[in-house]
Specification:
Distance between the termini: 39 Å
Shape: elongated
Helix content: 55-70%
Largest sheet: none
Strand content: under 5%
Order of helices and strands: HH
Oligomer: single chain
Number of strands: 0
Number of helices: 2
Radius of gyration: 20 Å
Structural class: mainly alpha
């Protein structure tokens, strides 16, 4: 049994923000050169992707909670 629910949107957001942190840590340590503007598209795109994933996950959970499945024909699919 799971101890808590998985939140894929938060997982995506955390991964992207950790990647941005690693990029700038490598730059600060002298391992490579990262342009100052590299974080803007990375973080913005990552947060957009995280929002989209959270939206889709919420829709799936809401659909499952209502008891509706894809195997059962809906009212518009009646024969």
């Amino acid at each position: 049994m799971l101890r808590h629910e998985l939140h894929p949107g938060k997982l995506v957001a955390g991964t992207v923000l950790a990647l941005a942190g690693v990029l700038y840590a490598g730059d600060a340590g002298g391992a490579w050169e990262t342009p100052w503007f590299a974080a803007i598209p990375l973080v913005t795109g990552g947060l957009f992707l995280a929002g989209a994933v959270a939206f889709v996950t919420g829709r799936i959970r809401r659909r499952r909670a209502s008891g509706r499945t894809t195997d059962e024909p809906g009212p518009d699919m009646a024969a």
